[in-house]
Design brief:
four-stranded antiparallel sheet, 13 helices, elongated, Multidrug efflux transporter AcrB transmembrane fold, 3 domains, Gyrase A, domain 2, alpha+beta
Length: 460
C-alpha cells in the first residue's frame, strides 16, 4: 500500500466529510453539542449553513407570461428594447423580496417570462410588473429643501403608517431629499446609444431628444449649470452627471468612468424607459407550497430508489470492485449536492432529473473500467497491471462520452427555457464530478488494496 494512495484517500474522505456537513449542517450541530457537553475544549455549534435554492415548482410561487408590444419601434431595436425591459423587470420583482427571481426574454415571440418563487402577494406583483418602465430627469434641491425633508424623514423613523399620518405634512418625509422631479421624462427621449471619446476612447452615452424634449432639456440645463441632473428609472438612480453648460439642439452626452458593459447596460435601461413597450399579461400559473412540497418529496424518493438500484446492480455484477465503486458513488452524490449549494444552483424538478441522470452516468464510467479490467485479466495479466490498463484504455471512451453530453448540455443551457437550463446545469455539474469520482476516487480505492490479502478478490 503506497503512502501516496493513503494521502489521496485521506484528502478524499476529508473533502467528503466537509461536503456532508455542508449538505446536512444539522449533523454538525448535533455532534458539536455532544462534544461540548463532554469535552472541556469547546467547538462552534454552527457550521456553514448554505440552504438549497428551490425553484418555483418545488417551493411554490407564480409563473407569469407577458406579451410585449414592439409595434412602436424599429425592428433593429427589438433585441435592445427587450433586454432593457428585462433589466427593469428584474429590479421590479426584487421589490417583493423574491430570492433568485427568474426573468427571461423570448425574443422571437416577444414574450417576457417571470417566475416568482415563494411570492405571497401575487396581485400586487402583477400590478407593479405591468406598469410601463418610467424614465425621468430630476434637478438638485436647495439645501433648505433637503434639510426639511431629512428632518421630516427622521420624525417618521420607527413609526407605523397610522402614527406617521398624525404628523403634519408627513408626506414630505417620503420624498427624495436630494433631487426633485421635472417635466422631462422618457417620453421625450428619442434614442440613447454608446459612443466613444475621440481622445481617451472611453465609452460615453449619447442622448437624443425629440423637439419638445430638446426644448425642455435646454431649459433644464440652462437653469442647472454647474449642478447635477439625476437620471432615474423606476425611482432608481442611474446617473447624475454635472451640467457644464446650456445644451441646445436636443443632443447630450453622459460622461463618467463607465466600462463598456456598464455603458451598454445604461443605454438599454434608458431606451427601455423611453421606448413605448407596453406589456400585457397572457397567462398566470400559481403553484401552491403544498404541491411544491409533494413534488420535492416524490423527487427525493425517486432519487433514492434510483441510487440504490444502481448500487445493487454494480455490486451484483462486479462484486468487490462494484462495492468500492458504490462507496465512490456515495461520495460523488455528497460532493455534487455540496456543489449545488456553493454554486447557487436553483433546483427544479427538471434539475433534479438531470442530477439523477448524472448518477447513472457516474457509474457508467466505472462499468467501462470494470469491463476493460475483465478483458485484461482474461489475457493473464496481474490484478495491479489490469487495474492500471483498464483505467488507461477506458479513459478515451469515458472522455468522449462525457464531452458529448457536456456539449449537448451547453446547447440546452444557452438556448433553452428556465426548466431546460436547470436540467442542463445540474447535468453538467454532475458529469464533471462523475469523471472525478470514476477516475480518482474509484481508482484510489482499488489501489489501496493492491499488495494486501484482499487483492485476490479485486477481480470483477
Amino acid at each position: 500500500m503506497k503512502k501516496k494512495n493513503i494521502y489521496i484517500l485521506i484528502c478524499i474522505l476529508t473533502l467528503a466529510i466537509f461536503a456532508g456537513f455542508l449538505d446536512y449542517p444539522q449533523a454538525w450541530e448535533k455532534m458539536a453539542k455532544a462534544w461540548n457537553s463532554k469535552i472541556p475544549v469547546k467547538i462552534s455549534e454552527q457550521f456553514l449553513n448554505v440552504p438549497f435554492k428551490l425553484g418555483l415548482d418545488l417551493q411554490g410561487g407564480t409563473h407569469l407570461v407577458y406579451q410585449a408590444d414592439l409595434s412602436g419601434i424599429e425592428q433593429k431595436d427589438y433585441s435592445s428594447a427587450m433586454q432593457g425591459l428585462k433589466d427593469v423587470m428584474e429590479r421590479r420583482v426584487n421589490i417583493f423580496g423574491v430570492k433568485e427571481p427568474v426573468v427571461q426574454v423570448e425574443e422571437q415571440s416577444q414574450r417576457l417570462i417571470i417566475e416568482l418563487a415563494g411570492i405571497s402577494n401575487v396581485e400586487e406583483a402583477i400590478k407593479m410588473i405591468g406598469e410601463v418602465p418610467f424614465l425621468e430627469f430630476r434637478q438638485q434641491r436647495t439645501e433648505e429643501e433637503t434639510k426639511i425633508i431629512l428632518e421630516k424623514a427622521k420624525e417618521l423613523e420607527g413609526k407605523t403608517l397610522e402614527e406617521a399620518q398624525k404628523i403634519d405634512n408627513w408626506e414630505i418625509g417620503l420624498q427624495d431629499p436630494y433631487f426633485k422631479s421635472t417635466n422631462l421624462t422618457g417620453k421625450y427621449l428619442k434614442k440613447a446609444e454608446v459612443t466613444f471619446d475621440q481622445t481617451t476612447y472611453k465609452p460615453l452615452i449619447s442622448l437624443q431628444f425629440n423637439d419638445d424634449g430638446a426644448k425642455l432639456f435646454g431649459e433644464l440645463t440652462k437653469a442647472n449649470v454647474g449642478k447635477p441632473i439625476a437620471i432615474y428609472i423606476d425611482n432608481e438612480l442611474l446617473s447624475a452627471p454635472t451640467v457644464q453648460e446650456e445644451i441646445a439642439g436636443g443632443n447630450a452626452q453622459i460622461t463618467g468612468n463607465f466600462t463598456l458593459k456598464e455603458a451598454q447596460t445604461l443605454v438599454r435601461n434608458l431606451n427601455a424607459g423611453a421606448l413605448p413597450v407596453p406589456i400585457s399579461l397572457m397567462s398566470q400559473q400559481t403553484v401552491g407550497p403544498t404541491l411544491g412540497d409533494a413534488s420535492l418529496k416524490q423527487s427525493l424518493k425517486a432519487g433514492i430508489i434510483g441510487f440504490l438500484a444502481v448500487i445493487l446492480f454494480v455490486i451484483v455484477l462486479y462484486k468487490f470492485p462494484g462495492l468500492l465503486s458504490s462507496f465512490a458513488l456515495l461520495i460523488y452524490v455528497i460532493l455534487t449536492l455540496a456543489a449545488f449549494k456553493l454554486v447557487g444552483v436553483t433546483l427544479t424538478l427538471a434539475g433534479i432529473a438531470g442530477f439523477i441522470l448524472s448518477i447513472g452516468m457516474a457509474i457508467d464510467a466505472n462499468i467501462l473500467v470494470f469491463a476493460r479490467m475483465k478483458e485484461e485479466l482474461a489475457q493473464g495479466k496481474t490484478v495491479p497491471i489490469a487495474i492500471e490498463e483498464a483505467f488507461r484504455r477506458a479513459w478515451p471512451s469515458i472522455r468522449d462520452g462525457n464531452l458529448t453530453t457536456l456539449v449537448v448540455a451547453a446547447i440546452m443551457f444557452f438556448i433553452g427555457s428556465s426548466f431546460i437550463k436547470g436540467f442542463a446545469l445540474t447535468l453538467s455539474i454532475g458529469v464533471l464530478l462523475s469523471m472525478f469520482s470514476a477516475l480518482v476516487i474509484t481508482r484510489d480505492f482499488m489501489r489501496i488494496f493492491i499488495g494486501t490479502k484482499l487483492e485476490k478478490i479485486m477481480r470483477p
